[in-house]
Amino acid sequence: MKYKKYFRKTSLKQKNIGDLFLEEIQKNNPKSFLEIGVFHGVTARNVCELMNKNHGADFSYTGIDIFDEGDEFKDEVAPVKTFNNPLKNFYFKYIKKQNPYSLEAVEDLLSKFKKNITLLKGNSNEVLKNIELEKVDFIFIDGGHEYNTVKNDLAHSHRLLKNKGTILCDDLNLSQALGVRQAIKEFSDENKIKYEIVHERFAKFNFN
Ligand SMILES: C[S@@+](CC[C@H](N)C(=O)[O-])C[C@H]1O[C@@H](n2cnc3c(N)ncnc32)[C@H](O)[C@@H]1O
After folding, report:
1. pTM for this structure?
2. C-alpha 35: how far from chain center
3. How would CATH label the architecture of 17-207?
């Protein structure tokens, strides 16, 4: 399946990386997906399309994001929220009349899958403490890039998977976010779980 951008921003923007990401997901063929860090919902929509193609209506997607532009989260290395393309700014401001970086706009983008999705607005350092997912078999960690946040996201993802499934962590090698790599390495050493480096940017942990 081809990764589509839906006229929005995504962290999987470089040439072909979205397609390679979907190929990686396809290998594990998940039915129940958790994404930490939803942003405009582009990956969410692509993953829902893929799971729908593979499993019909029998899939679930949960997404967590702060959806907050305040200064409180500036250390998390969040992407720039505005578009360079003025047409896109015009489209969201005057036609859609929505902020693409909001729970409402992502709900709208995923509306064809509304029975399958759950979107949670909040800081993953708090939200993850309070959730139990009955079944989840694939977790994509792409939220806050601060060391403590990635450590927290990894620990809770490990707990939620109950030793079965996959964690894919983005930005292993991002020079502006060295805490990501440190957290991944420490998680791997502390739990004696090896990870595979995929396409030079993802760390993949497989549990079975
Ligand atoms: C790189 S973007 C995610 C991109 C998205 N996964 C995609 O593929 O297009 C990171 C997102 O994480 C969110 N974020 C940052 N810190 C967070 C935190 N502590 N808890 C939850 N979400 C967070 C930001 O709001 C931002 O939308």
Report:
1. 0.96
2. 4
3. 3-Layer(aba) Sandwich (3.40)
